[in-house]
Amino acid sequence: xxxxxxxxxxxxxxxxxxxxxxxxxxxxxxxxxxxxxxxxxxxxxxxxxxxxxxxxxxxxxxxxxxxxxxxxxxxxxxxxxxxxxxxxxxxxxxxxxxxxxxxxxxxxxxxxxxxxxxxxxxxxxxxxxxxxxxxxxxxxxxxxxxxxxxxxxxxxxxxxxxxxxxxxxxxxxxxxxxxxxxxxxxxxxxxxxxxxxxxxxxxxxxxxxxxxxxxxxxxxxxxxxxx
Length: 227
Known about the structure:
The protein is of the alpha/beta class and 227 residues long. The protein is built from eight helices and 15 strands.
């Protein structure tokens, strides 16, 4: 069914989630702080992480970034409503989804099932075209499609996506992207990227997850799609 790592410092929440997962056949590991989380992640196979944001030691955002630097395992954030800034930071650090406390167990289980039944589908790549599932970039025509439907991007949004596509599966730094899209005189103006990447990912829908944030470095367009 899948091996799930719960990282949560509240024993009552941890127990409730564990019991419901085990009932449905999942294997569960538990960590009550960041140091236990890192140790367990290195010791046992993990297919999905349920990650609290406020932890003793390193924060959930730090743990998220640490995991994402080493693995593409799905990460679902468990966040309270007052942790909005942390939640955004965790998503920027590579988290895949979040549920807000207090959450319903069925909602959480549905999200766990959705991520665990996904599999990697390799891209079809040529000199001018990249196809990842139903998502296609035609660099020659300067067009982007989802299931043969033309995706309407602004000139800037397309320029960002095209630059990432030309460096598929490689990190493009903030400064490299800014220089290519806006010009070298804008180097260091990372707020431009944050704004446009948010809009671009939203327009791409589920395929927005192809663009990974690499904390402190830049962005990476993946050639594999998680279904």
